Structures are given as structure tokens and as C-alpha cells.
Amino acid sequence: MNLIYKTASDMLLPVKSRLSKRKHRKKYTRDELPLRSELFNSDQMKEHGKNLADLHQLTGKKTTERLLERLHENEEVLIETTRQLTAVVKENNPIAPAEEWLLDNFYLIEENVRTAKRHLSRGFSRGLPWLASGPSAGLPRAYDIAQEIISHGDGRVDLENLVSFVTAYQSVSCLKLGELWAIPIMLRLALIENLRRIGTRIMADVADRARANYWADQMVDVAARDPKSLVLTIADMARSDPPLLSSFVAEFARRLQGKSPALALPLSWIEQRLSESHLTIEQMIQAGNQQLAADQASVSNSIGSLRFLTTMDWREFVETMSVVEKVLREDPSDVYIRMDFATRDHYRHVVEKIAKNSQLFERDVAELAIGMAREAVSAKTGDERMTHVGFYLTDKGLPELEKRARMRLSLSETVTRAFGRVPLLLYLGSIILITLLLSGYLLIMVRESGLPSWVMLPAAAVLVLGASSLGVSLTNWLATLFTRPQPLPRMDFSMEIPPEASTLVVIPTMLSDVQSAEDLLEALEIRFLTNRANNLHFGLLTDFCDAPHEKMPEDDEILRLAEKGIKELHEKYRGVKGGTFYLFHRPRLWNAEEGIWMGYERKRGKLADLNMFLRDGVKDRFSKIVGATELLSNIKYVITLDTDTQLPRDAAEKFIGTMAHPLNHPLFDESKKIVCAGYGILQPRLTESLSGARQTRYSRLWGDQTGIDPYTRMVSDVYQDIFGEGSYVGKGIYDVDAFEKALHNRLPENRILSHDLIEGCHARSGLISDVELFEEYPASYQVDVKRRHRWIRGDWQIAGWIRSRVPVLGGSYQVNAISKLSQWKIFDNLRRSLVPAALTIMMIAGWTMLPQTWLWTLLVACILFIPSASALTLDLFRKPGDVLLRDHMAYMLRQTGRRILQIVFTVACLPYEACYSLDAMMRTLWRMLISHKRLLEWNPFHNNIHHARNGLAESCRTMWISPLLSTAVFAYLIWSARPGALCAAFPVLVLWFLSPAIAWWVSRPAVKEGITLKDEQIVFLRKAARRTWAFFETFVTAGDNWLPPDNYQEYPGAVIAHRTSPTNIGLSLLANLTACDFHYITPGEFVRRTDNTLDTMGKMDRFRGHFYNWYDT
Q1: Which pTM value belongs to this model?
Q2: Which residues of 983-1018 are buried (b: 16+ CB within 10 A; e: fewer)?
Q3: What does the pLDDT look like over 132-181, one tens digit per residue?
Q4: Which residues pair with 765 in a beta bridge?
Q5: Domain assignment of residue 871, given as a range
Q6: Which are the contacts of 558, defined by CB distance < 8 A and separation ≥ 6?
Q7: Distance between CA 846 and CA 852 in Å, rounded?
Q8: Which of 375, 408, 441 is the last residue before a domain boundary?
């Protein structure tokens, strides 16, 4: 047999070199025994759990964190063990079964080490109860529990033993919520510790076997060459004092027994040495075999337990074991047990926090909250929310609960609560303070420059507008630092939406042509397929496009196609869960103010007419209704989406579950006729779709913003976090009764273009930050400009709602009922539309009239950059725990570069932004005050996309103001001989002059860079492709039902893993297609193989339409 190493020293060299790099050199020994005690059955485990609880004594003193350091040490040992075993295998030498288990499953160990590191941050265990005495003194109680479970199960952890042990333990001493959540991490740590201890034994055994092999080789060599010298070799071995342990003796005996008679002499010497300890070689071999078997059992059990920990649903375990959960389930309103996990977990965390800062145990706090809910039931307050335990944990009842629990508030918490009593005053006060300080300082500079006094008033207005941008941005940034997002509570409708929460998903849209109707029907079907549920219905809410006549020649064909498509969908999914489709189509009506035939009040009118139909059965606003209308009287909620909005899988049930929670139910103020608490509307987070995010350089630059577009996104989360309400942008879910009660016959006709914000102000909108909708982002700058131009017109058309009296339907006026916060939202939109003009004027005035010309350029740059810099700073220090530092830093560098490019682009387009913003404002004021025409002028977003002209000439035609202004300012600076101003202005003037070309260039489709391969690279890839196809060609056969086996083991013996996964199947189908493309197989063979696989897939069991992770082939 070949030698592993020439000498024992050579064998140990890698270990020595590894250990020499460590600060404290450690020797791998057998001193630390595996976690292996007497094996207990289920009853014994229960008894041991009770006994252990009696023995545990807790201490309030916390010592140094040791678990994380030990985890790092364990990882080093296991890595080194694996390296040594790999070296042994490479030399074709046998390894023990335990060693093989360790080597084959090291990837799983690494994964669990990474998981433990991710969750076991520094200070993690300091929030847990620690033991005061015993072998685990100074360690968390949960870690000792984990060690005991593993020790008395020989590394085996299963749900039954775990539950029985923890249940028995808690019958004597209750575990905290944090301890229950820590159990999986502590079990991982204990299992890794166990594997480390076995790993050190393995390292020692490997070294012993290497010594045995070395001396056995010496003996065999000498016996063959000069048997008389064998005594000298034995003497050399005796002087080296070999370890006469089972690993050495067994390997040495295996190598020499049955060889030549001369080799009996060294075995006799070993036998003699062992006899001094009353042992024999046979006994040592037997003991070694027993140890190998025990180690194999321990390693295999530990590996199996790590797999169990990875696949276990710990949420269910925690809820089953938690005494707090048992108490909260006694909620007298029966709402708690029907909530989703995240909401229940949030409630439990509140209990945990109160207990941590009071003298009560967690169970006591939970019982106190339940008691308060029962008091509300007895008092018959009439407010259903007060009978729910959540009212006292997350709502207005929380202060009273904290008072009864005598909770101690920290200084920061006290200050935060104090500020929380006057949030709007603090928020607006901060904005005003920053704005006045900056604008006041700049106004003093302007006054000292010697300009006429009449200039001061317009200068003050411009400076206040410019400074307000920085004031709002900094205030929002500070708000994100000092406020914590509070998730909205949610019911769990994942299994079924109850009849009392029946919901209609509608897409208010336009039937413009046959193709658009077909696209709408296809998109509606996709939304249904991703959100199938009982009591969830889908429909199109349509108008024809504006036209000079009431009926156009193509109308009937388009409507027939839409009607036919809805009926076909209904038939196609008849009997399927959900499967109810509708078409609500309105006729054109003559609008004298617009001078055109159009749908009444556009999208706002569509939804208003739908609400009237759902509640009062009024059908006369619709010319065609298709679908089972008898089901619609039970509709509680409506989800409204735009044409391009994607509804992700199961998003609808999350919308409905959030809306249906009692704490979110809208409360109506009968005097003001608005929703004053709860929510009539819930708005999700909006993100650009993947299909549109990378179309052009423009969408790449701006399109991967998380949340709502830049015009309204920035403050939405801030509003929700500080004030408990968000800004509605037209996509979300609303309560039909609350919406209709707050807005029925309230808003004037031919006035409201941007209806979303004003509707949210009356019906009260909330933000669901953990649910996303996806929509297209404009691919070109001009398309985005047209969209923003319409938004600005809409904002100015509702400017009257910042006054004390507002217009209503019929032409009369009434007292403005919306809140001051809502009025601020409207005012803030008006302010933002004027900021580009203010910044442009600041720079031009600074260059042409004021001293310190560089200051004004830098000032505008800072106003634009500081919000981005503050956001980047916040992101920099919020590294996700599962992301490597280098990856996070690389991401931050990319984001920084992207933000800088955004600012450069914004500066380049600033004059044009100012121009179209002022144009939108002036058009609106003219139409509102003078002409009273075209206030509802609107072009659908998809029409803007289809009819957009993105050529360079078109860009120059629309953005003429920028190069013209650049040229004029440049000429004036040359004429007025202001070289300092010219230097300060020149970079910006160049950007302005080139802005049409820049806007055209970024709006062009993104071009993918091609890759040119060398001949040898092509040959290499072709060979790799052919070898890859050989696997599928050989193993995807009828014997495996045309499914690909997971793997094929070539060494040491040929073994096929007859199991597969959806990933494997997908790769196999792609391999078929690629093989056909590469002409490895004929098209007929491709069809045959693919059809066989698809036929098998059609017979495979699935869960809710989804394939399982693994199948036997």
C-alpha cells in the first residue's frame, strides 16, 4: 500500500503550519470528549427536562461573550480536519466512516456555521438569561438546554424529543420568548461543538495512523532487505514512544498481520507493551472498532440534526412552546388566532419589551393585556377595537398597559414619546427652521451685495423655495433616523378569503383598439393565476378613448372582443377557486368644458360609478356589464390597479388581510364626513418592473428606485412612520363603504385631474410597506416629463384644498374637512413644482449679479446632493447581516456613482424642468381662472410610450430653453467681463447646452456589449457543452421516467442518484433545446424527449400547483 506521507512529521506538517499562524497554538487532542451521555428515551427526556429546570440557577451578571469566539475556533478546527481528510483521500487511502460522513457533508456544516454567525451577532446572548452555577456557568441557559438535548440523544435532534423536553422544562420554569427563538441557534452551536470535538479526535487518529503507517513501512522494508536488523528498527520505534492507542495499534496490526513471519516480532513488542496495561491487540482493535462505530453514529446524528434545523419551521415551534402565545390566544375578540404570523410575532415582541423594562414576567404582561381587553368587553364600549388585545399592545391602549405594568421608559423613549404627541408641529417646525436659517443667511448676502431694495422680496421667495428643498430632505432623513417603521397588523387569509372580505380587483383602463383589449385580457388572466382565491374576483373597468363623436366605427368590434374574452375566461376557469371575471364598460358622454366625448370624470368617475353599482345597484352609468353581478353585492373591498401594474403572487390576500384587521378598520367622523382613524385606503409599495427597469440608460439611471417614483416617493414612508398615514397614488385597496361615504357627491366636476391624493386625504390612506406592486418605469426622459407635467397640473388643480373652504359638487363651497397634514401634502407638491425654477434663478442670479459666484453653484449642488448623501450614509451603516462587507461596499460604490450621475443629469435638465413645471402651473391657472376648459386633459401612460418620439431633433425641439439660456448667460458673462463667474458657471452652462443631446442619449435603448471569444475558448466551450449534453443524453431515459437524476457518482463505484428536483428538470429541458440548437440532436428527437418529460411532469404530485423540491425518479 502506498504511504500517505514519508514520515510522521510530514503527516503533521500541514497541521503545524496552520496552528503556527494562530496567536495561541493549540494541540489537537482527545481531551474534549464528544457530547455523549446516557441515551434517554422520550419519557426519560421529559424527566430530565424537569430535573434540569430545578437545577438551573440564573444570574443577572453577564460575563464576556464566549459563544461567538468558540464558534470561530470550531470553524477553524473543522476546516483543518476537512483539509487533512481531503489529503488522505487524494492519496487513495481509506478513511473511517465518521470521517467520510464529515467530509461528504462539510458543505452542510459550513452552511450552518454561516447561519450561526449571521444570527449570533455580538451581544446576542447578553439579552438571554445566564446560568449562575454548574458546568455551563456564565453561559446562556438556552445553550445548556441545547447541549443536554444533544448529549442525551447522541447528537440526534428531532421535533418530538425537542418539544417534549422543552415542554417538561417549562412545566417547572418558563423560558422567555428570546430563549425560544435562540434554541435553533444554540442547537447549531452545540452540534458544531460536538462535531469539533469529534474532529479533534479524528485529527489525532489521522496522526496516529500516519505514525503507524510510517513504522509499518519501515518494518516491511527492513524485513524484506535485512530481517536481522528488524530489532534495531523496533528499538527506534520504541525510542519514539508511539501512542499505543486503538487507532495506532489497529492500523499497525492491519499493516503487519499475515505478512512475513519476521513481522511477528514488532507485533509481539506491541503485545508486550499492551500487556503492561492488561490489554491485548485484539482488545484494542475491538475498542477501536467500537469507537469508530460510536463516532460514526455521533457524526451521522449530528449531520442529520443540522439538516433538521435547516428544514424545521421554527415559527411553529416557538408559537407552540411560548406561554405568551398561549395567553394571547385567549383574546376575547378571537382576532389574534386569525392573524398572520408576522402580526402575532409583533404583538409578542411588544410583550417582551414591556416585561424587559418592568418587574413583570412576560406571561404577566400578556395576561394584563388580555385582562384589559376583557374589561372592554364587559364595559360594552361599542368600539370593537378595544376588545382586541392588539389595541393595548400596538394601538392607543398601549400607554395604559405600560402604566399598569409600571414600565420604565428610557430617556430616549421618553423624548420620542413627547415629540410623538405633536408630530406635525415638530415636523413642520424642523422644515421651517432649516429653511429660514439657510434662506435668511443667503438673503443677508444678497442685501449686502448692493442690489435695489425692490429685489429683496422676489429674492426672498426664490431663496425660501430653494432652501425648502434642503429643509424637507434633511427633516425626512432625520425622521428616518429617529422613527421605527411600524408594520400594519394583518389577518391571515393565506388559506381562504372569507365571504365578509369579498374583494373585486379592477383595472380602470381605456379600450383604444383591438390589440389593447387583447393585452388587457391576457394581463387580467395573469393577475388571476397569481392570486387565485375564493371570494376574489377580477374585472376590467373600461372607457373608450376620447373622440369627437359618441360612437366611433371601431367601438363595437373592440367591445365585442372584450366581452367575448371575459366570457371565455369565465368558462375556462369555471369551477376553479375564484374564477369569476367581469367587464364594466361606460359609454362616452359629452363634456362641454373639454369639447369632446369622453368617459365621465375619467378614472375617478369610473371608480365612483363602480362604487354606486356595488352599493346601490345603479347600472345606468354602464353601457355593458358582463359577469355574475349577483355576487357583487357582497363586495367589501376593491383593489384598483393601473394597466401596467403587476400584481405579484398572493399580494391580494395580503392587501385584504391588512384591510380586514380590526385595528385598520376605518372610523368615520360624522361631523366632518371623513375617515378620522383606521384606513379607508391602503397603498402598497411600488417598484419598477424587471421588464422595464433595464430598457434604456434612463430607466437604468432612475428606474431602480425602491418604492414610489421620485415625485412622491421620498416622503411616503416618512408620513406613515411619523403620522401613521401615507399618500395614495392610485394603486391599492379601499373599503367600498368608507370610500363612498367620504367621497360620494363631494368633489366638483371637471376639476379633479389628480384624484388620488385628495381621495386619500378624505378616506385616510395608509402604507403597506411590506407588500409590493410592480409597474413600468418610463424608458425615455420625454415620456417621464409628460407624466410629471400631468401630475403638476393635477396638483395645482387641487391647490384650493389648502384653504379653509373648498368647492363641492354642484358649485357650492363648504368647510374644508381634511387634516392639516393633508393640507401640507398638497402644499408640498406645489412647492416641489417650483423648486427647479428657484434653483435655476439662484444660479443665474449668482453668476450675473452677485459676488462669490462659486458659492451659488456649490449651494445648488449641495441642495441636490445632500439628500442623496444622507441616504447613502444611512445605507452604508445598515449593512444586511447576510451580506459580505466587500459586497456591501461594492454595492455602495455603485450606488454612489449612480447618485452622482443622477445629480449631473438633474443639473443638466434644470432649466427645462423649470420651464415645463412653470408651463404646467400657468396652464392650470389659466384654465381654472379664465378659460375653464381642458382641466381633465390627460393622455394614458401607455399611449405616451407608444407615441413617444425620442430622436435628437425632437429632443432639441422640446428642450430648446436649455441651450438658449446657456448661450444667453454665456454671452452676458463674456460681455460683462466676469471671468470668475464664467469659471463657476462654465461646467453648468456646458451641461445646459448639451442637455437635449444628453436626454436623447440616455433615452436610447441600452446596448449590451458583445464578447469576442478566441478560437481556443470556442473549442473549450464546445467540448464542455458536448460533455454536458452527454450527461442528459445518457441518464435521462425511460428508466427514470425521462427525468434527470440528481447526480452520477463515478468514484469509488458507479452510483446514480435516482432523485430529481424542479431545478434539475428545468435544466434538462433547456439542455434539450440547446442540444437541438447545437445540432447534437434532430428537431424530432428534441420534440420526443421534451414531450416525454412534460408528460411525466403532468402526472407528478404538486402543492397548490407548485412542484415539490424532490421526487424519486
Answers
A1: 0.86
A2: ebbeebbebbbebbebbbebbbeeeeeeeeeeeeee
A3: 988 888 899 999 999 999 999 999 999 999 999 999 999 999 999 999 99
A4: 681
A5: 423-484+851-899
A6: 511, 512, 513, 514, 517, 544
A7: 8
A8: 408
